Amino acid sequence: xxxxxxxxxxxxxxxxxxxxxxxxxxxxxxxxxxxxxxxxxxxxxxxxxxxxxxxxxxxxxxxxxxxxxxxxxxxxxxxxxxxxxxxxxxxxxxxxxxxxxxxxxxxxxxxxxxxxxxxxxxxxxxxxxxxxxxxxxxxxxxxxxxxxxxxxxxxxxxxxxxxxxxxxxxxxxxxxxxxxxxxxxxxxxxxxxxxxxxxxxxxxxxxxxxxxxxxxxxxxxxxxxxxxxxxxxxxxxxxxxxxxxxxxxxxxxxxxxxxxxxxxxxxxxxxxxxxxxxxxxxxxxxxxxxxxxxxxxxxxxxxxxxxxxxxxxx
Amino acid sequence: xxxxxxxxxxxxxxxxxxxxxxxxxxxxxxxxxxxxxxxxxxxxxxxxxxxxxxxxxxxxxxxxxxxxxxxxxxxxxxxxxxxxxxxxxxxxxxxxxxxxxxxxxxxxxxxxxxxxxxxxxxxxxxxxxxxxxxxxxxxxxxxxxxxxxxxxxxxxxxxxxxxxxxxxxxxxxxxxxxxxxxxxxxxxxxxxxxxxxxxxxxxxxxxxxxxxxxxxxxxxxxxxxxxxxxxxxxxxxxxxxxxxxxxxxxxxxxxxxxxxxxxxxxxxxxxxxxxxxxxxxxxxxxxxxxxxxxxxxxxxxxxxxxxxxxxxxxxxx
Lengths: 314, 317
What we know:
The complex is a heterodimer of chains A (314) and B (317).
Chain A: H1 8-37, H2 45-63, H3 66-90, H4 95-117, H5 144-149, H6 153-171, H7 173-183, H8 185-190, H9 195-222, H10 233-243, H11 248-271, H12 277-281, H13 283-296
Helix pairs in contact in A: 1-2, 1-6, 1-9, 1-10, 1-11, 2-3, 2-4, 2-9, 2-10, 3-4, 3-9, 6-7, 10-11, 11-13
Chain B: H1 2-20, E1 28-32, H2 42-57, E2 60-64, H3 72-81, E3 86-90, H4 95-104, E4 109-113, E5 122-126, H5 128-142, E6 147-152, H6 157-173, E7 178-183, H7 190-202, E8 207-211, H8 216-226, E9 229-232, E10 245-251, H9 253-265, E11 273-276, E12 283-288, H10 294-308
Helix pairs in contact in B: 2-9, 3-4, 5-6, 5-10, 7-8
């Protein structure tokens, strides 16, 4: 059952699969985590992955460059964030409802626009995506080398994003303000923190990060666009935030856990053909529930998450 | 795009003229679809069969796209109430709804494509084992490693039948050959399908059979990247992906629908299971890879002939 662990090539392949399956989850989780730290639920991650995927396909198709795809994906992500902030922060609409609205909009919008924008449909695209960059010397390390040091640009960007969020949230004044807004917006407001501006900024930034997850699927994995291709990854990202206790590094590990167990279950299917495959398909979720109740204990969300801030309200 | 539009308009024009003249009593056929008619896959295929029936048989048609499970009965019985003579559910997921509609409206013909045999309903099916068998045969001649794979999203009966034939065909050439089966749990997740494919390739499989919707693109991509082959069971991959396609078969559900409508027009359709084998109008061989050996082509042709003559039944093995 575990014999692939002792075969260097097979094990490297397994790790690489797990990592690739984790990448969209990581971007989604980081974007959502940032928003929730500022007291705003971003349920729309699934839709933002989809918008990012469509934006990436559109940009790469029009400019012929992967970089153009990332740029358009970020624009789409920012636009969805702006909409989310306008409805959820300024107009104080229920954030769950707003999030679902963005998801539904994203599904319809991207399916329709892909028929308009791509002749012959998004399925027939062959986009120029990112190619792996081998870092000299480091990429020659057996097993770990090819997995960690022969990745494409978005992988290194992901590492930078996680590090940046960790540092900004816990090592800077700005991060302190963001967390204050998420815990007690009234207190932060009284202390002179611009609650609304900060929430707007964080939602837009978080949405842009989430859209990068969609860009990864298109520009690094499959090089085409297909309807609803995010396939529920945004929701797993949401779960990873809770599993990671609203901490960027722990959330990263949670996403890797999902990804690696997903890769693991794909392998397990052959080793035990008599077992129903659904048992294996459920494995990542079973593991995360066990981790949630057993290892980590009670998760404590930011106190003000999900509650729109109103200055006049007691 | 413009061409399609022009053809579409022309077709509507023709239909309008035909309706206006002689065909006041034209057969009315309604199809209820799970997806959109532009999906380049199952739904589009069915839709093409429907429009062909309109153009060539002169029947009156209607269709509803993206009908979810809870509304199936409502949409289908609505067509029955509005006087449609034939109501078709496109896909196995319509079987239960079709059974209820057939009981409620005994005067109309209810048809389900790819559905399990059901009381009161005409079901249209394929001898999936036959199609799997020829693909397995081709894989047996094309594989270098002696390992091949089949990928689907769910463990559905039609896929299991394909795999049964696939394995029998492969083992007919390579008695000790191994067939890996993987499930992705999502018909449309291309990224997941690609990872699952890379995974079976890394275990030595060098011919892959995708039984997926949009997910098949992930399988094709993985095969392209790792320089292995794909066999297509539902649609002919030889035109779009000539490099990776080893051999394809075609399950032409549109063609099957056309034949069913023709039967209904002659009032000859019965509520029973209609089954298409390989080498019929509705299910046939697609293209080979350009470099396919003569040995492979001969073996496949011989098997098709035997199966048509009833001398070879892969489902019995």
